[in-house]
Amino acid sequence: MHDADSRLEEARGLTEALGVEIVGAEVAPVAAPKAATLLGAGKVDELSERFKADGVDLVIVDWPLTPIQQRNLEKAWSAKVLDRTGLILEIFGDRAQTREGRIQVDLAHLTYQKSRLVRSWTHLERQRGGTGFMGGPGERQIESDRRQLDERIGALKRQLDKVAKTRDLHRRARKRAPAPVVALIGYTNAGKSTLFNRLTDSEVLAKDMLFATLDPTLRAVKLPSGRGAVFSDTVGFISNLPTQLVAAFRATLEEVVSADLIIHVRDIAREDSEAQRLDVLQVLSDLGLDESALARVVEARNKIDLLPPEERLRALNEADRDPNAVAISAVNGDGCEALLKLIDGRLSAGAVEVTVRLRHESGKALAWLYAHGDVLDRRDGPAGIDIEIRMSKMNYFRFFNVFGDEVNVSVGREAKAAE
Ligand SMILES: Nc1nc2c(ncn2[C@@H]2O[C@H](COP(=O)(O)OP(=O)(O)OP(=O)(O)O)[C@@H](O)[C@H]2O)c(=O)[nH]1
Ligand SMILES: [Mg+2]
């Protein structure tokens, strides 16, 4: 879980990404959420005073607000109020540059708006004469709004289809060239663009700003072996990514996750690095990436330059023991050579012969190995079961992604380089 402080920091980052001046930010504990205003009346009043004194005209509430709550807070504070989804949609609206990106954002916006047309409440209001404390448009107005939104959503979807078809043609042209695609994905601000620039010698925008990148970029690279590959940099993930956005960006994201190899770039200098990792895996699974596809995921544990020496050493050692991970600094280049080598090796097909040590109780992992490889030798000892096995590279990496945490594995280093 992200704690309140990291969430507040992230909300600050998102607000800065919108380019507005931040007057203040704080955590407001909510014991019992109020249906009308989320916050209690006392808190709403107290904030109202302060907002007036500071001349605040935009308030971000990092929590999903119902349309009613949003409207009531706007009234109480005489300021525009955005919740997390609204804020992220605004940022995306600012950033989108390609035609496809703009259509995707518009689509997400309209879907969001449509989901916020309230019927049941206003229905009551209207029957009571329409002057209840909620105010709001009448039933007929809402129906006509909904129809208009539906029409525009339909039109955008058709446009998007057209653009996607063109992109599909481009993609097929690329597929004919045999270069495999390597996609950089990860939490926003993890360092994807910085790494992309370093690996491909390019200059896409890399900035200490959330969602600096929105539109995908592709570049061809030559790997150490001489093999060519196409790298892609794209939009970052975030916890509680608005579903409207995921839906609108589905085509882009699916293209990314269908890459031959997925580099999950992580900021491991952050306190909530593990929570961010889980958020990213959640988005991947939302996009339909299943267990077998996890074999295509490699972790680039970035920003090791920010770690104090002992922690850095630990990170390096841990990554060393994991065939699916490399510890790097995209800023100073540490580990990037090793990452390229790992990518190179992973893109070459073939089998590996390794010895894996399992704990006695790891029956599942043992059965998996027997099912997915040729067991060459088995030694049952007091420290565990040593299995010498030959299996496809794909299965080897898959094994680590599935069982890496729960089994005690000892592999010869040569396994990492085995072709
Ligand atoms: N110290 C340090 N900073 C890094 C490293 N990699 C990236 N950064 C910084 O982290 C910030 C974000 O980097 P980006 O490359 O823009 O991150 P991103 O993942 O592309 O972010 P979005 O496009 O916003 O999702 C920038 O200020 C980078 O300079 C690293 O290895 N070490
Ligand atoms: Mg970026």
Within the largest sheet, what's the order of strands? 4-5-3-6-7-8
Shape: globular
Helical region count? 16
By CATH, the architecture of the largest domain is named: 3-Layer(aba) Sandwich
Strand content: 15-25%
Distance between the termini: 39 Å
The radius of gyration is 25 Å
CATH H-level homologous superfamily name of the largest domain: P-loop containing nucleotide triphosphate hydrolases
CATH topology of the largest domain: Rossmann fold
Q: Class by helix and strand content? A: alpha/beta
The largest sheet, given as strand count, sense and whether it forms a barrel, is: 6 strands, mixed
Low-confidence stretches: 119-135, 412-419
In the CATH hierarchy, what is the class of the largest domain? Alpha Beta
* Helix content bin: 40-55%
Q: SSE order in H/E notation? A: HHEHEHHHHEHEEHHEHEHEHEHEEHH
Bound molecules: guanosine-5'-triphosphate, magnesium ion
What does this structure look like?
By secondary structure, this protein is α/β, with parallel strands linked by helices. It folds into four domains: 4-88, Rossmann fold; 96-172; 177-348, Rossmann fold (3-Layer(aba) Sandwich), CATH 3.40.50.300; 350-419, Alpha-Beta Plaits, CATH 3.30.70. It is built from 16 helices and eleven strands. The strands form three sheets. Strands 4-5-3-6-7-8 form a six-stranded mixed beta sheet, sandwiched between helices. Strands 9-11-10 form a three-stranded antiparallel beta sheet. Strands 1-2 form a two-stranded parallel sheet. β7, α12 and β8 (325-327) form a beta-alpha-beta unit. Bound molecules: guanosine-5'-triphosphate and magnesium ion. Guanosine-5'-triphosphate binds next to α8.
